[in-house]
Structure formats: C-alpha cells, structure tokens
Design brief:
Helix content is 72%, strand content 0%. The protein has 138 residues and is an all-alpha fold.
Length: 138
C-alpha cells in the first residue's frame, strides 16, 4: 500500500498561513503529533490568559499564540528550504511520486520571511513601549 504523497509547497503554505494552530503538523505527521496539539493549545491558553488578566496588555496575554505563530513561520522556512530529495526521503518514502518545487514555493518563502520579520519587529517595539514607557505611545 502506497503512502499518500506529502506536498512540500502545501506544507509550507499551511505552516505560513495556519501554522499558529498547527495544521501543517497534522498534515505531515497525523493527529497524534504532540507539537501540533501544542500549537492548538496556544489558542485556548491565550484566551484564558486574556480572561484571567483583563487589565494586562493584549500582547502579553496573547503571547502563547504569538510564539506559536513565530515558531510556525520558522517551520515554514525550514520546510520550504529543505531540498526535494531530502524531503522525499523523510516524508514520501512509500510514495511513488517525486517532489518537484516550483516558483510558487519561492514566493511563499519570501512572503513568510517578510511577514515574520515585520511581526517580530512589531512585537519587540510594542514590548519595549509597554515595558519602558508604560504604553505611552499607544
């Protein structure tokens, strides 16, 4: 029985767009993946923190989800930059098809890098604003 082919471009897109909730992990490793469930757990944990600490800044109560999203962006880059032959050895050993990356993967990687860099810069700027000025700039 042939195992289903895992597409590297789809995996990268899932990690970049919906990786904060772990969909890329479930696509690659199935429903028993512990790290996928850790990504899923970040959503209710952030909501619980927001309920428990209503006076705190949202950036601190949403920190589990923000960290999950940044980790997913790094995972998207690692998945997308993995060579096709190494990808097939790891995820498509029982598949009859070979992976072949196209230009759309490069576009996804560039957009992921830009979005992750902007998100990290915004996170640092807002954190420093809250920590050093008490939120004087917003």
């Amino acid at each position: 029985m042939a195992t289903p082919h895992k597409n590297k471009t789809v995996s990268t897109l899932l990690a970049a767009a919906l990786g904060g909730v772990g969909l890329h992990r479930f696509y690659l490793h199935g429903w028993r993946d512990r790290f996928g469930w850790l990504h899923v757990l970040s959503v209710p944990l952030s909501l619980a923190l927001a309920q428990a600490l209503p006076a705190s800044a949202m950036i601190f109560t949403a920190l589990p989800l923000i960290v999950s999203m940044l980790c997913a962006a790094i995972e998207a880059l690692v998945i997308g930059l993995t060579p096709d032959d190494k990808w097939d050895l790891r995820h498509n050993t029982g598949s009859a098809r070979q992976s072949e990356s196209h230009w759309i993967l490069a576009v996804i990687l560039v957009l992921t890098t830009g979005a992750a860099a902007m998100g990290l810069i915004a996170l640092l700027a807002r954190s420093f604003d809250l920590l050093f000025t008490g939120g004087a700039f917003g």
